Amino acid sequence: MPTVLSPDEVASIFPNMEGEYWLITALLYGCGLRIDEALSLRIKNIDLKSRNLLVFNGKGLKDQYTLNPGNFRENLERQIAQARSMHEPDLADGFGPTSVPASMHKKYGPIVCRHDLHRSSYSRQMRQAVLVSGAATRVSAHTFKHAFVYL
User: Fold this and answer.
1) How far apart (Å, rounded) are the C-alpha atoms in residues 25 and 10?
2) Could you tell me if residue 1 is inside a domain?
3) Residue 84 domain-assigned?
4) Among 25, 50, 59, 120, which one is most buried in terms of CB atoms within 10 A?
5) How many angstroms from the chain centroid is the CA of residue 107?
6) How far apart, in Å, are the Cα atoms of 54 and each of 43, 48, 62, 107?
7) DSSP secondary structure of 68-125
C-alpha cells in the first residue's frame, strides 16, 4: 500500500520549499508527475494557455498529457523566464540548444547542454522540508504523486 499524505501534511511541507524546488513539488502534487518527468520537462512541453503539460517519454517510454492547475501559473512563468535568460547567453557562447534525447546524440554527435537540477539535489531539499514540517509520514518525491492520485 503506497504512503499517502494528508492535505494537512502537504500544507505543512510546501511552505518549507522555495523557488524551483517548490515548483517541482507543485508539479508532483498538482499534476501527478514522477520526479524524473518533472525534472525533464521542457518549455516547449508546457502550454500555459490550455493548462496542459506534455510528459515526453514518461514511464514505459510513453508520451502523455496532463493538466496543470492554474494556481501555480505565475511560478511556471517565472521559471520559464529564468530558464530563457540563462539559455540565450549559452546559445550566444556556442553551447548546444537544449537537452536532447539519446537518439539525437547518436544522430548529431555530442551536444553540450546545461542541466540545472539533479534528482539528488531535489531529494536533499525535500528531506529538509519534511524535517522542518515535522510530518510523521516517511515522504519521498513519489509520495506527492500518490497524494495527487488520492485527491
Assistant:
1) 10
2) no
3) yes
4) 25
5) 27
6) 10, 11, 11, 24
7) --GGGHHHHHHHHHHHHHHHHHHHHTT--SS---HHHHHHH----------HHHHHHH
Q: Classify the phi-psi angles of 18: left when phi > 0, otherwise alpha if psi is within -120 to 50, otherwise beta.
A: beta
Rg (CA), the chain: 16
Backbone φ and ψ for 53, nearest 5 degrees, come out as -125, 135
Tell me which residue range forms the domain holding 98: 7-149
pLDDT in tens, 86-110: 878 877 877 665 666 667 667 766 6
User: How confident is the model at residue 14, as a pLDDT?
Assistant: 93
How long, in residues, is the chain? Answer: 151
What is the rounded CA–CA span in Å between residue 17 and residue 132?
10
**Residue 11, phi then psi, degrees to nearest 5:** -65, -25
pLDDT at 23: 92
Which residues touch 78 (CB under 8 Å, ≥6 apart)? none
Residue-level pLDDT at 18: 92
Cell numbers placing 7? 492535505
- CATH number of the domain encompassing residue 83: 1.10.443.10
